[in-house]
Amino acid sequence: MGDWEEEWDESAPVVVAPPTYRTQTYYQNRDGRSSNRGRGSRGQHSSSNTDWRARGDDSRGYRQNNRQDNNKKIHIPSSKVGRVIGKGGSKIRDLEYECEAKIKIGDSSGNDTDITLFGTDAAISKVEKMINDLTIDRECRPPKNNSYNGANSSTNEFLTVNSDGVEVLDWAKLNAYHDQQQQDRWAKLPPIVKDFYKEDPEVAAMPPEEVKRWRLANNDIQVRRTFDNKADLKDIPNPVLTFEQAFKHYPEILDEIYKQNFTHPSPIQSQAWPILLRGEDMIGIAQTGTGKTLAFLLPALIHIDGQPTPREEREGPTVLILAPTRELALQIDKEVSKYQYRGIKSVCIYGGGDRREQINVVTKGVDIVIATPGRLNDLVMARHLNAINFSYIVLDEADRMLDMGFEPQIRKSLFDVRPDRQCVMTSATWPAGVRRLAETYMKDPIQVNVGSLDLAAVHTVTQKIMFLEEDDKVEYLLEFIESMDPNDKVIIFCGKKATASHISSDLVCKGIMCQSLHGDRDQSDREAALEDMVEGTVNILVATDVASRGIDIKDLTHVINLDFPRHIEEYVHRIGRTGRAGKTGIALSFMTRSDWAHAKELISILEEANQEVPEELRLMAERFDAMKARRERDGGRGGRGGRGGGFRLGRRDRW
Ligand SMILES: Nc1ncnc2c1ncn2[C@@H]1O[C@H](COP(=O)(O)OP(=O)(O)OP(=O)(O)O)[C@@H](O)[C@H]1O
């Protein structure tokens, strides 16, 4: 995976987290024996298996600092070690944390693995019991009184005999039993309320022609029932034109909005607020920087406060906001913290953040969880976070989460969420994967498209293209930097982490203050880099696409695409970092001949935004089409090549 949130991949090697918490990668070979022929995880010095064993307990960060502390050796089947370690070492950390013990995974001999437990007697016996519970093989026995089929049965109802006379699990029955169990759990949940909307009489009285005119005038807003084209638009609420029309019954919310000095709702907010306050599911597709966060956040605050069950009696948090990257999750958390409403608390959980601290906050009780899918899945699977009570879930930048392969984590984490929840999805595009998610998690959603569904950049950004050779990029970049005004603020997007790291180091060596943001920097440095840009400590940020979405840096005046992005969608998101909230911005993109595969789509985006289309770009697109035609004539020779699956310049390709 690239810079994005590091994700646990089910097929990945087992990661053993020794007491020093330095992660080492072990490969669980076929017979389940752990070996450490793997590489150390990025940024760690991988040491041999014997290395930290050889150093003995003290050197591994574990001190026998209490004379009652002793140790006990137990053995478990090597094939069960993974259950003790858990995903990314999460289970072993939980066991140590909950039992106040230390666990050392020892050598595997034969089919068994030694495990040494350190701590007080009480801690050792507690952790030993928990390890036994984890590693015992439970047959799939029906409950004592198998209420599923209404009859007490001592035989295993879930076993059946297949056509070969072999006893096998009857998965259909098992799944039906599980579904029934799930339904029983949900039936016990307290009721929820979703409709808080009191339509302002002025809004209700808007004539249909006026509504149509307003929608057309505001980026050509399209509204429809996503999965029911025949639905009558009359059941879709009219847009609100002022903050008061949306929130006059919630004066504290209005006060929070007034503090931000906004003058009027953005188009997506005008249409989304009535829909979400009415408790409907909604898919919001709007350009970057148009206020989507506030569009789903303010109704979420009202939803939390309006539930009949007191907050302290709820089984878990009420609102879940999923975001594709740590930076976007932190960005949303920052936006949430701007709005104080009735003591509502939020927590941001993301990979690379302090897991234990996040568990503490979640355990203490919060109302809103803002999360990246990986860490959410980790905490839900480790039973630190109860997802069953989420009654308002937001999948922000859903298309990006799918691009990054998060669908399995999303589905696993949301598996327990109550079926009557309200669901909001935002996306910049509407690919099949997002549609699939919407069909699974949404009930008769209303889709609000602000602007056309075609990929479109915000019209507040002046888009410039510069054609050059790869080797000339740095020179032109330095020229731009020298030409910057003191109040200019720029993000320089690079195609790779290594480039971002090299460029930022190069600039610093030249005495040019800057920060860098990419996946090879640890989380605290990434947050500091963003903070420095937001606070104005530096005005140059060199980044990879980890910063291409959602990041909201006020008064960002420029975006430089030092390397053209691999996907044209990222081009739209990158330049959308400027020209936000109605301000204007400038995007300067460097293009080399290897970017010719993007020329055609870029021309469409420039034309849609009424931007000047350079003649070289048209020629580039023509040459690319001619090359494709030539290759097809030659029998389709040559396939993917170049960055991002573009076409690589072949010997015969004329430039
Ligand atoms: N009604 C409004 N008037 C003016 N500014 C607003 C309004 N609503 C939100 N903003 C500001 O606009 C900026 C962009 O908002 P936000 O990040 O929600 O946009 P977005 O559509 O989510 O962008 P992206 O697609 O990049 O995530 C934020 O600084 C936010 O505070």
UniProtKB/TrEMBL annotation:
Residues 473-621 form the Helicase C-terminal domain. Residues 273-448 form the Helicase ATP-binding domain. The keyword Transport does not apply. InterPro entries: DEAD/DEAH_box_helicase_dom, Helicase_ATP-bd, Helicase_C-like, KH_dom, KH_dom_type_1, KH_dom_type_1_sf, P-loop_NTPase, RNA-helicase_DEAD-box_CS. GO terms for biological process: regulatory ncRNA-mediated gene silencing. GO terms for molecular function: ATP binding; hydrolase activity; RNA binding; RNA helicase activity. Pfam families: DEAD (PF00270), Helicase_C (PF00271), KH_1 (PF00013). This is RNA helicase. It comes from Leptosia nina.
